[in-house]
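User: My collaborator and I are trying to settle a disagreement about how two of our proteins should look. Neither of us wants to argue from intuition anymore, so we agreed to look at predicted structures for both before our next call. Could you fold the first one, then the second, and keep them clearly separated?

Assistant: That sounds like a sensible way to settle it. I'll keep them separate. The first protein:
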Amino acid sequence: MGVLFVDETKAGGYLMAAVAVSENDLVKLRKALRKLVLPGQRRLHFTNESDARRRQILAALVAMEVGVHLFSSRSKRQAVAREACLVAVVSWAVEAGHTKIVLERDDSLEKADRRLLYRQISRFGLHDVMSYGHEAAHAEPLLWIADAVAWSVARGGSWRARVAGLIWSTTTCD
């Protein structure tokens, strides 16, 4: 049983990264991630980090041995791409036996996300077993892993290579 922590990037197409974390590892990993935050920072956010800092953070993430599942869409319409990826995330979560999905809070998307997640979880008859929610990135450190991996994959090259060992699967959602 595990929890998925999901973030997205829209750079170079639409990509969602879902980090699978065992419920037994939640506290340990949150603590390790908070140690990576520098004085004056509320959170890790890859677009705001220097390259040297990105390398340091990615090395720490690789050492954490978490698994990341990528969901991508080639749709030019963000709403369509997001919906397709979220549908795939729920299907994959059900198949893998995960019990919760946590997305980074975006007030402009939260209502539509909730409707879609409710509908998809209902489709599987799992409301008693699976939950979902949105969290602010500064409040949920495990979202930082999804942010870092999504950024690195979208950036490509050596950045993608640094996170390759964390990526367990890739699903195209079109």
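The second protein, kept apart from the first:
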Amino acid sequence: SIFSKSGNGVVFDGGARDLEGLEEIKGFNAFVRGWDPTILVDTMLTGINTPIRIGRATCVPGDVVLAKREGVIFVPAELAEQVVKKAERIMLRDRFGHQRLKEGKYTPGQIDGEWNDAIKADYEKWLTDNVDALPLPKALIEQMLKERSW
């Protein structure tokens, strides 16, 4: 019902049932504490669209939810753009690092540690040389080059 009306999945701090049936719904994701064949027992609904604590995280209405197999994080809406931009920068650094490691140009210690001036210069050149092939808008990469935040 949730998915058919909203296209969204669920994050549920409790057990759920019907795993096989839910797996058949293309695009639906459910992140739950566990699976159980019985109906909900000893569970009380305390609110809808209200702040809630799940484990060590607090989720409030409007938060951006990022759910992956490893877990779920909640990003306050006012921080979402900043988080996405930082993640994009990390993704580019990782792509550069993996490529240079495969080429044998640097060691894992050099890539994972604080970069020296030579690696920073190589990264700038790599960004410039690959600006059209990278998965980010050219304007964002050019902004990164101006800020040099690595």
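Some points you might bring to the call about the second protein. DSSP finds six helices and six strands in the chain. The first strand starts at residue 10 and ends at 16.
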